[in-house]
Amino acid sequence: MGVYRVLARPLLFRADAEWVHDRAVRVAEAVGKVPAVCDAVAKHYGATDPRLAVEVAGMTMSSPIGLGAGFDKNGRAVAGLGALGFGHVEIGSVSVDRSDGNPRPRLFRLPSDEAIVVHYGVPNDGADAVAHRLHGRRNGVRLGINVVNTNRGIAASEHEVIDDYVRAVRRLQGHADYLCLNLSCPNTEDGQHFFLRRGRLELLLHALAEVGIERPVVLKVAPFARPAELDGFLTAVGGTEFVRGFSVNLPPGKPAGLAVPEKMPGAVSGRPAERAANRTIRELYAAVDRKRQVIVGSGGVFDADDAYRKIRLGASLVQLLTALVYRGPSVVREINRGLPELLSRDGFASVREAVGADVRT
Ligand SMILES: Cc1cc2nc3c(=O)[nH]c(=O)nc-3n(C[C@H](O)[C@H](O)[C@H](O)COP(=O)(O)O)c2cc1C
């Protein structure tokens, strides 16, 4: 982290954020294409401590730490990113049709807050291209595919949105270890709240059940504004067999106290996202059916303490993204090294034992 922070980061931060992001994905893609290099990277960075191993929704993983959706949007660099020590890599969001996303610039760093303002609007190559790219992938790190509805820049009807998700899932599920449905809709009038409207989530889940879901499904939701929203959401999920977990998205708008121009669009990741994310993990853990459903926590994870806090609040898996930008690629190894020490300090033999330790009664 020292070298990255002192040498690489100051240079990278002089360039446009999206340009750097694209280059980083290309480097990881190049690493993944040369097995000898990828294996050497994995040897250096990989998670080996048995206390880190987790089993979630039938999937075994070498670490609970994963890469959040939005870094590798198109599944170009799964092998190279996996070599950094992640137990899973979530790609996407991918929609059934390709999309250019929002106009640029649409990604901004806030270095003093260790944050990023994201207004991508889910640009991606579309489900066919991503499925084609993943075809024949070597088994390695667990792969999650995050699915969203296509951003066409115009408001879509309820039927169109649901159909969009269903077609993308149908095309992509065979390539994934799990699916994550990003329920924040970029091209609907009510955006993040689209699926909080009564009946819509049931319609989506029903339509997916008819397709035949072959993979565990995680639903990615923004922090709930009121307890009634969470109750309504979980009631809609009900006993749907294939829903095996919930993941926390960025809250809409800007947390108070950030030095950003008032009109800058987008959501804020990194440190400022941590508080709402941790509250939501705690709320979800207290309310879900723990025998079947897990929580995937993300938002402001920069070190082992941050990851451990989310685990103790109820997260079985923890994702990060912004920390890669501020701390560099070795951040995953540092978390994987620090986590077992925190578990041992508190007398836990495994991650599983620590999940929800601060919430269980
Ligand atoms: C640049 C960027 C792009 C993102 N794109 C997506 C996306 O396409 N789909 C999604 O579900 N989440 C997306 N996210 C949210 C992340 O997956 C993650 O939930 C969030 O950033 C909180 O983690 P962090 O604070 O470690 O970044 C994005 C976040 C960032 C910073």
From TrEMBL:
Keywords: Flavoprotein, FMN, Membrane, Oxidoreductase, Pyrimidine biosynthesis
Keyword Cell membrane: no
Gene Ontology MF annotations: dihydroorotate dehydrogenase (quinone) activity
Superkingdom in the source lineage: Bacteria
EC number: 1.3.5.2
Matches recorded under CDD domains: DHOD_2_like
InterPro entries for this protein: Aldolase_TIM, DHO_dehydrogenase, Dihydroorotate_DH_2, Dihydroorotate_DH_cat
Sequence ranges assigned to domain Dihydroorotate dehydrogenase catalytic in this UniProt record: 52-343
Designated name of the protein: Dihydroorotate dehydrogenase (quinone)
Species name: Kutzneria chonburiensis
Lineage: Bacteria, Bacillati, Actinomycetota, Actinomycetes, Pseudonocardiales
